[in-house]
């Protein structure tokens, strides 16, 4: 009976739950799904992490390569995030060039990296105007079940903290770069931005961490990215139902709490690796 | 959305009108529609209106490495894009035939006629030259795109100023507009396209065909000419055969038209220059028609935002502060940690029965058996940690089958 | 914090200036200018039709070069904003296409795009449940808010926030931004944008009154 009701009137089905301030999967409105982090999942990458938020799974691999710094900023390197939504993760995606959602997610992640100043691009420069690191951060979605941005942000931060770059010296006589694979160092990550997404139902209910199903039914989405100083690195609300300033403040409060949770989680996960 | 085709009676009507030497918009055979040129605030930006056909042009410059076979010449690049807003039948990627044809013609008219001194665009021979890029956007298609585009392109090029550069040894310095005035391009002559549409196998001829007229025409002759009456390009398309006299007559007409249009462009350029020099207002905002009822302007207006702080303070005070309760993460194994208990992922189901799920996220050397015990223990810790957990588990259990089933 | 000196630049708008689209508008904010063309409701390919509402498409065209990932992002923001106000259920299985052409960028581009889109939709006569307007705020290092910043102000600022405000309750439809800021600053910007939106909606009203009044 319930399954039939859900198929015919999915929105009404959700409303019945929301009236009781809970969700069909048993969560409270402000509760996240189980968040699991695994760092160093890929041994061939310079840094990697796998993050699961309920079923939504994103794998982030960071590959570092040499490149010439950009002409207009000779003391900087590059960070190139790329979100990949393959047909593997959901039937709604087609093979071929990245679709709109993947492009928008990539742009969002790139914006957050720039805004939050999580790592200084100057640190990626090896020799002024000649050699710099480019960090290709590939975010591959393995299972698409809502709240892609939160999962991606979390995976990216974890993977970047996992990156170990070999030390590079420029030989002054030959002008060539010498790579010392034995001494590796971590990147200087200054900020740890954490994203928190919300779905708006009927202009009144705010659901934290929406699943794919909830995202499809919601009338609006909102993503808030905070850093450890409780400052906002990005707030993104792409249209949808209108939101009053008071509601927004609630979201920010929840995002700040979530930031603490995730930072703890990241620290624990990373600490457990270092102890080996 | 498909373009509405022309009906047969409309076609017959148009042809009959042309045979009676009448045009739907009341023009004579050799009349152009009104041409209006407006310059933007940026250098090299203009909008040309030919009747209701509208083309936006933007010229930009960039320092690039020259082509191997022409190390001392700058590069000219043209791109005439048909915007989807130009007409309803347009689809992205389609209509490439029309677009290719127009681009090719434009290139022949402007690049191959050597109207721009490309050698003056050289910064350091073989290493650095200016690339001048001309982007044209067709905004509204009411016929005769090529004439409007060629006027827009040449007006844009004349208006454009590139940043000044200086070369000292190998060092190339590009100056910002504040440091040094940007320099104009050196333009030898101004080629302009004039289109002639032929009907009934060349019996009737019209200058500047409108969109409807283009539908019924048999052939099109485009003559590109400068004001010295030098022909730069001539192209006949549509598969009609023209007599020598016809072409000569067309070229004479084109000469007159080009003279008029060149004068118009120069006048528009002068007006813009004067406005800039006198520090007066210029740009698109000034060209907004004042009298039309479909246009309105609002003067600068101050916004009083003094009240903002109080209002905001209230909102923030009213809102619930962030909660201090933070759940403690559980470390399962090296590099794997978890928080939260809401809707566990379906992978978690495997852990009771199968053991291979550990391979996904654990260090390879850890023995499997040991892993499982630690994990189960940690999960139990979870349950006791918070009070509402038993309920959650109870709800989750019946939900799972339904999740899988749909 | 001193935010009294905020000034909206000169605004201008013209509708129905293109003959081919069903609705068209150009919107000017100081030297920033965007042109919009709206087609629809019109027939649609079967593969793209939605059975209970109109399919909305937004195409944003940069002035030079090809559309990049940045434009895609803005397209999505504008599309979702329009989608929330257009009553698409009145025209199921049709397409509504909004084409935006950047004519000149002198700061506050996204808000100008939004305003042009709204004006274009109005001209096309599409049913909407509310109007919306775009407001951009720039914040510099000491927290001063500048409304409708020009290119230079935008560049020198610490954070730039763009909002879409709807006309019925002045709620926030869309938010997008660059830079870091605190929650308080965000709220201040929203409040400022809401005040600025009054001016814009008044402008909308004057505009429509001028166009449709008999005198």
From TrEMBL, chain A:
GO cellular component: cytoplasmic exosome (RNase complex); nuclear exosome (RNase complex); nucleolus
UniProt record, GO biological process: exonucleolytic trimming to generate mature 3'-end of 5.8S rRNA from tricistronic rRNA transcript (SSU-rRNA, 5.8S rRNA, LSU-rRNA); nuclear mRNA surveillance; nuclear polyadenylation-dependent rRNA catabolic process; rRNA catabolic process; TRAMP-dependent tRNA surveillance pathway; U1 snRNA 3'-end processing; U4 snRNA 3'-end processing; U5 snRNA 3'-end processing
Ranges for domain Exoribonuclease phosphorolytic: 31-166, 193-256
Pfam families: RNase_PH (PF01138), RNase_PH_C (PF03725)
Location (main, coarse): cytoplasm
Gene3D superfamilies assigned to the protein according to its UniProt record, in alphabetical order: GHMP Kinase, N-terminal domain (3.30.230.70)
Keywords from the UniProt entry: Acetylation, Cytoplasm, Exosome, Nucleus, RNA-binding, rRNA processing
GO molecular function: mRNA 3'-UTR AU-rich region binding
Family: Belongs to the RNase PH family.
Name this protein carries in UniProt: Exosome complex component RRP43
Native source species: Xenopus tropicalis (Western clawed frog)
Lineage of the organism: Eukaryota, Metazoa, Chordata, Craniata, Vertebrata
Gene from which this protein is expressed: exosc8
UniProtKB/TrEMBL annotation, chain B:
Main location: cytoplasm
Alphabetized Gene3D superfamilies for the sequence: GHMP Kinase, N-terminal domain
Keywords: Cytoplasm, Exosome, Nucleus, RNA-binding, rRNA processing
Pfam families tied to this protein: RNase_PH, RNase_PH_C
Disordered: annotated span: 335-406
Cellular component annotations (GO), alphabetically ordered: cytoplasmic exosome (RNase complex); nuclear exosome (RNase complex); nucleolus
Biased composition (Acidic residues): 351-363
Record-level GO BP terms: exonucleolytic trimming to generate mature 3'-end of 5.8S rRNA from tricistronic rRNA transcript (SSU-rRNA, 5.8S rRNA, LSU-rRNA); nuclear mRNA surveillance; nuclear polyadenylation-dependent rRNA catabolic process; rRNA catabolic process; TRAMP-dependent tRNA surveillance pathway; U1 snRNA 3'-end processing; U4 snRNA 3'-end processing; U5 snRNA 3'-end processing
Exoribonuclease phosphorolytic domain segment(s): 32-163, 189-254
Subcellular location: Cytoplasm; Nucleus, Nucleolus
GO molecular function, a single term: mRNA 3'-UTR AU-rich region binding
Family the UniProt entry places it in: Belongs to the RNase PH family.
Official protein name in the record: Exosome complex component RRP45
Source organism: Xenopus tropicalis
Automatic annotation (TrEMBL), chain C:
Main location: cytoplasm
Gene Ontology CC terms: cytoplasmic exosome (RNase complex); nuclear exosome (RNase complex); nucleolus
Domain Exoribonuclease phosphorolytic: 8-127, 131-194
Keywords: Cytoplasm, DNA-binding, Exosome, Nucleus, Phosphoprotein, rRNA processing
Pfam families per the UniProt record, alphabetical: RNase_PH, RNase_PH_C
GO molecular function terms noted in the UniProt entry: DNA binding; RNA binding
Annotated localization: Cytoplasm; Nucleus, Nucleolus
GO BP: nuclear mRNA surveillance; poly(A)-dependent snoRNA 3'-end processing; rRNA catabolic process; rRNA processing; U4 snRNA 3'-end processing
Similarity section: Belongs to the RNase PH family.
Oligomeric and partner information: Homodimer. Component of the RNA exosome core complex (Exo-9), composed of EXOSC1, EXOSC2, EXOSC3, EXOSC4, EXOSC5, EXOSC6, EXOSC7, EXOSC8 and EXOSC9; within the complex interacts with EXOSC3, EXOSC8, and EXOSC9. The catalytically inactive RNA exosome core complex (Exo-9) associates with the catalytic subunit EXOSC10/RRP6. Exo-9 may associate with DIS3 to form the nucleolar exosome complex, or DIS3L to form the cytoplasmic exosome complex.
PANTHER family: EXOSOME COMPLEX COMPONENT (PTHR11953), EXOSOME COMPLEX COMPONENT RRP46 (PTHR11953:SF1)
Protein name: Exosome complex component RRP46
Name of the coding gene: exosc5
């Amino acid at each position: 009976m319930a399954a039939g009701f859900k198929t015919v009137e999915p929105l009404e089905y959700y409303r019945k739950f929301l009236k009781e301030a809970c969700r069909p999967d048993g969560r409270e409105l402000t509760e996240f799904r189980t968040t699991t982090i695994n760092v160093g999942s890929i041994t061939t990458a310079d840094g990697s992490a796998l993050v699961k938020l309920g079923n939504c799974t994103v794998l982030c691999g960071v590959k570092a390569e040499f490149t010439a710094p950009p002409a207009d900023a000779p003391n900087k390197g590059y960070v190139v995030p790329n979100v990949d939504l393959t047909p593997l993760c959901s039937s709604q995606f087609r093979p071929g060039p990245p679709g709109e959602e993947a492009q928008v997610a990539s742009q969002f992640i790139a914006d957050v990296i720039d805004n939050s100043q999580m790592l200084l691009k100057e640190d990626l420069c090896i020799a002024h105007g000649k050699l710099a690191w480019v960090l290709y951060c590939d975010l591959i979605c393995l299972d698409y079940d809502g709240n892609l941005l939160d999962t991606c942000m979390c995976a990216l931060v974890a993977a970047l903290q996992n990156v170990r770059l070999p030390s590079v010296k420029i030989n002054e006589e030959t002008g060539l770069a010498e790579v010392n694979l034995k001494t590796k160092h971590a990147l200087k990550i200054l900020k740890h931005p954490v994203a928190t997404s919300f779905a708006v139902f009927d202009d009144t209910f705010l659901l934290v961490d929406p699943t794919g199903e909830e995202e499809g039914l919601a009338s609006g989405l909102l993503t808030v990215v905070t850093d450890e100083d409780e400052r906002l690195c990005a707030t993104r609300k792409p249209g949808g139902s209108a939101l009053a300033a008071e509601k927004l403040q609630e979201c920010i409060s929840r995002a700040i709490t979530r930031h603490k949770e995730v930072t703890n989680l990241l620290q624990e996960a990373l600490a457990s690796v270092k102890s080996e | 959305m498909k373009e509405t085709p022309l009906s047969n009676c409309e076609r017959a009507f148009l042809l009959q009108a042309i045979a009676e030497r009448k045009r739907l918009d009341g023009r004579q055979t050799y009349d152009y529609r009104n041409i209006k040129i407006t310059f933007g605030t940026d250098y090299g930006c203009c909008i040309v209106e030919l009747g209701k056909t509208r083309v936006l042009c933007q010229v930009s410059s960039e320092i690039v490495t020259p082509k191997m076979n022409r190390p001392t010449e700058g590069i000219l690049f043209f791109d005439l894009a048909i915007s989807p807003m130009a007409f309803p039948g347009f689809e992205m990627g389609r209509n490439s035939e029309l677009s290719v044809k127009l681009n090719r013609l434009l290139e022949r008219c402007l690049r191959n006629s050597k109207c721009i001194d490309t050698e003056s665009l050289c910064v350091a021979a073989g290493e650095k030259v200016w690339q001048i890029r001309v982007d044209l956007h067709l905004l509204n298609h009411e016929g005769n795109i090529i004439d409007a585009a060629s006027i827009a392109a040449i007006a844009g090029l004349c208006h454009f100023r590139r940043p000044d550069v200086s070369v000292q040894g190998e060092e190339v310095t590009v100056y910002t507009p504040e440091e040094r005035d940007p320099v104009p391009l050196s333009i030898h002559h101004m080629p302009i396209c004039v289109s002639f549409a032929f009907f009934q196998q060349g019996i009737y001829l019209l200058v500047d065909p409108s969109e409807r007229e283009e539908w019924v025409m048999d052939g099109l002759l485009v003559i590109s000419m400068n004001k010295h009456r030098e022909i730069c390009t001539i192209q006949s398309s549509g598969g009609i055969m023209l007599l020598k006299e016809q072409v000569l007559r067309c070229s004479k007409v084109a000469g007159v038209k080009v003279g008029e249009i060149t004068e118009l462009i120069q006048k528009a350029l002068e007006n813009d220059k004067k406005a800039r020099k006198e520090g007066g207002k210029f740009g698109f905002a000034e060209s907004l028609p004042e009298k039309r009822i479909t246009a309105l302007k609002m003067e600068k207006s101050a916004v009083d935002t003094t009240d903002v702080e109080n209002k905001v303070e209230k909102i923030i005070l009213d809102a619930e502060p962030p909660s201090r309760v933070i759940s403690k993460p559980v470390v399962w194994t090296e590099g794997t940690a978890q928080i939260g208990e809401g809707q566990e992922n379906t992978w978690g189901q495997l852990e009771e029965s199968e053991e291979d799920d550990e391979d996904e996220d654990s260090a390879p050397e850890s023995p499997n058996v040991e892993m499982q015990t630690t994990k189960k223990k940690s999960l139990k810790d979870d349950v006791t940690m918070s009070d509402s957990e038993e309920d959650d588990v109870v709800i989750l259990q019946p939900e799972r089958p339904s999740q899988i089933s749909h | 914090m001193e935010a009294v000196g905020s000034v909206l630049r000169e605004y201008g708008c013209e509708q129905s200036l293109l003959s081919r689209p069903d609705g068209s508008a150009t919107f000017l904010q100081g030297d920033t200018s965007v042109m919009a063309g709206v087609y629809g409701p019109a027939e649609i390919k079967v593969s793209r039709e939605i059975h209970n509402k109109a399919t909305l498409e937004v195409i944003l065209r940069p002035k030079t070069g090809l559309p990049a990932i940045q434009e895609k992002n803005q397209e999505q923001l504008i599309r979702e904003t329009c989608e929330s106000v257009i009553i698409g259920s009145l025209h199921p299985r049709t397409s509504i296409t909004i084409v935006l052409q950047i004519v000149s960028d002198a700061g506050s581009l996204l808000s100008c795009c939004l305003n042009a889109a709204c004006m274009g939709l109005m001209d096309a006569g599409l049913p909407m449940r509310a109007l919306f307007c775009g407001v951009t705020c720039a914040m510099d290092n000491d927290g001063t808010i500048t409304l409708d910043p020009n290119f230079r102000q935008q560049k020198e600022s610490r954070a730039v926030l763009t909002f879409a405000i709807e006309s019925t309750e002045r709620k926030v439809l869309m938010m997008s931004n660059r830079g870091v800021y605190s929650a308080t600053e965000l709220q201040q910007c929203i409040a400022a944008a809401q005040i600025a939106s009054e001016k814009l909606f008044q402008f909308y009203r004057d505009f429509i009154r001028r166009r449709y009044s008999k005198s």
